[in-house]
Amino acid sequence: MLLSLGLLVLPQAAFIWLSLHADLGLGQISDAVTLENYLRVLTDPFYLGSFWLTVHLSAAATLFGLLVGFPAAYALARIGGWIATIILSLILTTSLITVVVKLMGLNIILGSTGLINTSLLALSITSSPVQMINNETGVFIGLVQYTMPLMIVLLFGVVQTIPVEIEEAAAILGATRARTYLRVILPNARAGLLSSGLIAFNMSMGAFTSAVLLGGGRVRTIPVLIQQMIIQNNDYGKGAALSTMLVVFAFLLNLIAGGLLARGGGGQTG
Amino acid sequence: MAVERDWNRRLASKAILAGAVLFLAAPFVVVLGASFDPATGYHVAFPPRGFSLASYAAIPWKYARAAGTSVMVGVIVAVVSTAIGLCAALGLVRGRLIGREALASFFRMPVQIPFVVTGAVFLQFYYQLASLTGVNLLNGLTGLIIAHVFVAVPYSVGAVTAVLSRFDPALEEAAESLGATAWATFRSVTLPIIRPGVLAGLFYAFIVSFGDIPVALFLAPGDRATLPVQIFEDMQFDFKPSMLAVSSLIAVLSLAAILAARELAGFDMVARPAHASAASQPSERTARP
Fold first, then answer.
1. At a CB cut-off of 8 Å and minimum separation 6, what does A196 contact?
2. Tens-place pLDDT, residues A237-250
3. B233 touches chain A (CB under 8 A)
4. ipTM score
5. A185 touches chain B (CB under 8 A)
6. Which of A53, A199, B14, B288 is deepest in the core (most CB within 10 A)?
7. Which CATH number describes the domain made up of A53-219?
8. What angle do CA B252, B254, B256 make, to 5 degrees?
9. What CA–CA distances, in Å, run from B275 to A257, B191, B289?
């Protein structure tokens, strides 16, 4: 026991030391130029626009992810057995392979001479290629790709805790399928939906690679701006201010959602 | 309720599931397919117009070098962060500490910070360290490894904690009452039982390190880019079919490694994925990767 306690202190101390230094690093830089940096970031429509862009893309990707992810996880949990295990492993595997490979594939599929556009053109649905990369649509699709595997895995766990018997009870009492879904299944999954959604939203807000490679450098979300500020412009002050804003925003959001979750008490409303 | 009716009733959900799986698998299928196209120019063709290994033969040496860097960094990160994770998990699960919850969330903290921010913060920190002490961690890969450990530790802690909390402490007490020293108990009782958790921790830490782009983009020296960063940069500025070949190799080898890890280590990824347990708190993740 003592051994374990002793062993805990070392890494912990190392991390406090590290995190302190990291914070100091940001603080120091901001101290010298600070208020000006924050002020400039907070009053400049360009940065505010970027912030809004990041938030609304993340929110859209999260909502879409939930809309698709929940039914998918639901079907998977109800199929059950080894088939579900295999499909779930497959889904999880797609998230474990480095994201560049995925993005390269998406680029090929969504590009102007890609699979979708050549099909659309061949079927005469459109007369010119639909622009799906190097814009917000591309980043949106990338974010959905990025967050969906984890979302399905998490929601799978949520659906597993909802006994199939209550659905049967609802059906016996005459509820239609849609009604059962809306009034029985979804309320029971509320807490799970909220926390999975939050994780997906957090991931999207911080997503850098998808935003760069599918936005073609034209979609400047906050993570993209942070990297451009620091690496290309050598503007550490602004980069740090943007970083702090992003982290504080995520932190507050988690706090609020945590409160909501605690108050919702796991969603036992029928 | 007839089984058949039941099956039909969930048809809509199943269709969505099929769509989601197709959507998630498609990029890999396309990359793999296009890598066999005989084209040598910049044009990518899927479905491929023939079968050729030309793009594989054209893989430049820099990717092999980058792969070496990635694997080396990944292995060191996996070992170090799992060692830390093991200690932390032992303390969190066993030690009846005051503020255990706070500590647990402390260890999850790096997961909440976007990778870009982590990269930027460490870069800043290393600059200051260099100006104060003259030690420049950015010259080699040390700086990158430290930052990756920072990011990977929550996953290791999560993986080990998951196994440890199902472990019966009575087994350890039995060993100790039979006269085993604390270390002997740990080595021959505790460790074998939590082995799956430790292996899962190693596995996830490696995955996190190997898959990362933003942190490595900031911290890897220009001539020692990791494999994903090398591909990332070339994708933006200099696309060549050989990159499809490299990506296909990554995908296939990753898949093989994941399957092998499951078989050999016997840990169940699906029941409790480390990043789910590390991230599933409202006070909550990084992967993407």
1. A66, A69, A151, A154, A155, A158
2. 778 778 888 888 88
3. no
4. 0.84
5. no
6. B288
7. 1.10.3720.10
8. 70
9. 20, 22, 11
